[in-house]
Amino acid sequence: MKQPLLRAVVATAAALVVAGAAAQSDTNPPGATVESLLEIARQNNPELATMRHEADAAQERVAQADALPDPRFKLELQDVTRMGAQNPTLWPSDVGSTRYTLSQELPWFGTRELKSAQARYTAQGAQTAAQGVWVDLASRIKLAYAQLYFLSRSQRLSQEILGLMQTLEQMAQVRYAAGLAPQQDAIRAQTEQTAMKSELIGMQSELRQARARLNGWLARPAQAELAEPQSLRALPQPDLLDAEALEQRARARNPQLAADEARVSAADAGQALAMKGRYPTLTVGIAPTQFQNDFKTWDLMLEMNIPLWQGTRRAQERESVAMAEAARARRDTTRNQLLSDLNENLAALQSAQQTEGLVASSLLPQAELTLQAALVGYEAGKVDFATVLDAQRQIRQAKQTRIKAQAEGQARLAQIERLLGEDL
Asked: In which band, very low, low, confident or very high, does the pLDDT at 16 lie, cut at 50, 70 and 90?
């Protein structure tokens, strides 16, 4: 009785631990930082898992390419009726003679090495392609996180401005009741609030779409909860954004370029392998012959194919040359596009950094002072309501520009890291 009771206690405790972990997971959804999202994607994304398995499969083909073909065994029962003296039989000692042939095919010298090299380069290409899938997926997640941050902060800003407009409406109502302002001021404040509420509805829809898209990359239900983005990654210092140094890193680390380089090497090996088709494939064998219970003769065998029809082989050689040239052209195209995209995103990142710095140090403080002065002036009856609206639009635009510049900087950083194949 003690053992079942112990098992029940252990099972209950394990269930409580699992339930507690699940509850904690539900109360602390991922998404507060981009690192938490990347970790989930690395473990759960099915596309990434597919590429990893394909890369593992390609690696296993290297040993297959280097192996000799399986040997062949042949059994020949000759004169199974002993020239009509007996009924047909399949027993080797009871027939006229039995010939056993064991043969092994031997590719021409260097053929196995070329096949192995071709398979090895193909496996390298598959490995770098899998890495490229992860780099591309990580870039998409970083971009989505930046978009979520932008939408979340924009939504919060609109709610703040909406609260400000409600305060302005109350001020306008008080001044209208006192005969110090026209009713039009309150109506304009209400109109501004209606427009902001419409914008908030649109932002909420965009947020739902962005979360559904991000959950799809994380292999989570589309409606699964995500935490509000709390912080952005720090942008790199200017000394890390040297164009020449980044170009060198991109040439050395970019997964797509590395995959194209591996395809070029595999195509070169394939071209050399096609040239080996001019030479025969040898087959050697040994064939003992059994007479009743004794082996009285032993034969050696040498067989080869005759590469006679050269038209087919020349076509194969021309095909391999064209494939190698196509691989080189694809690699050059990738390299040129890589450097172009890198410099484009680098310029945009530097522009976003400068814009954010300008807004934070100059435009935003000026807009805040303007709004404060406008509010004081309107309350004192020295400025009209239109001036207050212009001031709130200026501060809203300044804050919106700063948020947009922050998100743009993160998006450009993600693109640069995708091109580099690694984090800055």
From this structure: very low
Q: Tell me whether residue 146 is in a domain.
A: yes
pTM of the model as a whole: 0.78
Q: Which residues pair with 287 in a beta bridge?
A: 299
CA 290 vs. chain centroid, Å, equals 64
Given the DSSP bridges, would you call strands 72-78 and 97-106 parallel, antiparallel or unpaired? antiparallel
CATH of the domain at 370: 1.20.1600.10
Q: Cα(166)–Cα(181) distance, rounded to whole angstroms? A: 16
pLDDT category of residue 27 using cuts at 50, 70 and 90: low
67 three-class SS:
coil
How far is residue 74's CA from residue 158's CA, in Å, rounded to a whole number? 84
Q: How many CB atoms lie within 10 A of CB 106?
A: 15
Rounded to whole angstroms, the Cα distance separating 384 from 175 reads 12
For the chain, helix (H) and strand (E) counts, in that order, are 10, 4
User: 284 forms bridges with which residues in the sheet?
Assistant: 104, 302
**How far is it, in rounded angstroms, from Cα 418 to Cα 421?**
5
Q: Which domain holds residue 400?
A: 35-68+107-420
For residue 312, with 0-12 CB atoms within 10 Å meaning exposed, 13-18 middle and 19 or more buried, which class applies? exposed
Strand partners, 97: 78
Instruction: Give SS3 for 289.
Output: strand
Any idea how long the chain is? 424
98 domain-assigned: no
Residue 221 or 19, more confident: 221
- Beta strands 294-304 and 97-106 are unpaired
Question: Rounded to the nearest 5 degrees, what angle is found at the Cα of 421, between the Cα atoms of 411 and 225?
Answer: 50
pLDDT tens string 183-223 = 887 888 888 888 888 888 988 898 999 999 989 998 888 88
Residue 189 CA to residue 363 CA, distance in Å, equals 24
List Cβ neighbours of 42 (8 Å cut-off, separation of 6 or more). Answer: 48, 134
